[in-house]
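Incident review: delayed structure delivery

Summary: a single-chain prediction request sat in the queue longer than the usual turnaround. Root cause was a stuck worker, restarted by the on-call engineer. No data loss occurred. The affected request and its eventual output are reproduced below so the record is complete for anyone auditing the incident later.

Affected input:
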Amino acid sequence: MLQSIAVGGGAVLAGCAGDDPPAAEGNGGAKHWIGAQSSDAPNYNVFRMTDTTSIDRLSRVMDPAFVRDENAEFVPRLIRSYTVNDEYTKWTFTITEHGEWSEPYGSMTAADWVYSITEIIQGENNWAAVSSADKWRMPVEAVPDGFEAADEDGRQAWFAIEQTGEFEFTVEMPAPFPAFLSEPILWGFQGVVPIDLAEPYVDARDGDGLNEDEEIQGLSYTGNLGGFTVERLETEARMVATRNDDYYLRNYEGYADTPYIEEWTYQVMREQSSRLNALQTGEITATDVPPRRAEEFEAMDDIQLIGTPTVHCQSMFYNMREDGWEALTVPDVRQALTMAVDRQSIVDDVLHGYGSVAHTLSPAESEFYDDAAVVEWEYDPEGAQDRLEASLPTPYSYEDGRVVDGDEEVVLTLVYADTSDESELIARLIQAGIEAVGLEVELDPVPWNTMLNDYLNSEPGEARQWDFMTGIGRNAYPLAPEATEFYWRPGGSANGYGYDDPHGIADKLADAGRMEDADERQQLLTEVFGLLSESQPWNFLYFPEILNGYRAHVTPSEEPSISWGYDKNRWEIEREQ
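Output delivered after worker restart:
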């Protein structure tokens, strides 16, 4: 599963309480990898995962359908090969013949894939609360014969999924979709479970039951489908997984005897200082390093620091729902607030230059980024206040330099993930910038999982109060920006901030994914990024560079890229002396 959400604020992992790390005898004896994470995994249900913490752990015990290498080339995993017709409407996939579920479920076949997609992901009324359901359908003028409607109005059609052999299935679309494999639909896909495990919940339409199933949450069904097998899973402390000697990938050239690491542990360590100290002493193998300490760690003989680009745009979300400040639905107000935040200072002073200012949901290096189309709202406190004052809707106004509602000063809430010192510094910079233009801002630091569950993903009336939110990075999918469609579609599962999409950005992205003419596609995507920069549905803050700290005895098998970690089962570690 290719994650759409990552944690922001200098660190890439979330914050949550945990125990002290286990002793590191593995680093000096067996080839034992101990990675420190700052949060527990909120959910191991493959149909609901969206966060990096859960997906990283799942990926140790279950491979995705396929991955992409440093050059963005297709690398087979559970899916071994594919073909597509000339119209780009029908794709045929062959899965591995060597896949086995845990007992008693037997061999993994195409039937499992078709059942999981059609009965769970495409299930009626999204009974299983699947996070990726929107990806398996497309807009249509009318639902064609042979396809099923995916909405009440008949303006969306499900992809048609059919088993055509024991290890073969097809995905057919009602219109051409040449970008299908470039989007995170089957790329990174892990949303398949044994039929016999899922069937009771499918028959009962029991989404909560499926989500709470012990085998689902314990990842005990994954058999030989990943390089490791779960040995111990303590939700708020650690996951320990041992080398899977029956790993299916060993049947293919170049993967004999993989993985090369004997045991893999994910250890929850809430405090950044604890993680860094543990890396220095050799108690853990790897953790992220904050930019402010990059020079210090680079000078250590027993530590290696590897910088990797990221595709996650760190942003500030505006609450445009009915439980947010209603002025945030006005584009000029959002533009003013973007102008009030010194994003370059965030990059220079908090990230120490390890990143770049964002102006839209695309890095400036992208082929779809056009300076002439993108509006770059520069830091301008005076201009921000003028724009804010001119665009405030009734009943809001300025009085003595402060924004008021009648006789009451407007007080807004900025919730942020308390994952690191950098997260707090960024929140305080944003607070200072917005307060300088006349709006009182209160900070609300919370654990990352709490921010997702109790704020962003809770319905108005049930959610805790928030107006601004930082600490979440959204994947820009630079190879296939069409995949960001679900961020903007009103009512979509990923649009938890209530953007109403007046420019039809979601539809434009869906159209781009079906275009066969590369020039037309580029032109439309360039237009989309310009509209996003102008509308400012989020305050696009920055694209960070991730600093990965490893013990010196770690030998990666790949070059740094946006696909970093795709080949981890061929990474090696030597025993430390």
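Verification: The CA atoms of residues 181 and 187 lie 6 Å apart.
Action items: add queue-age alerting; document worker restart procedure.
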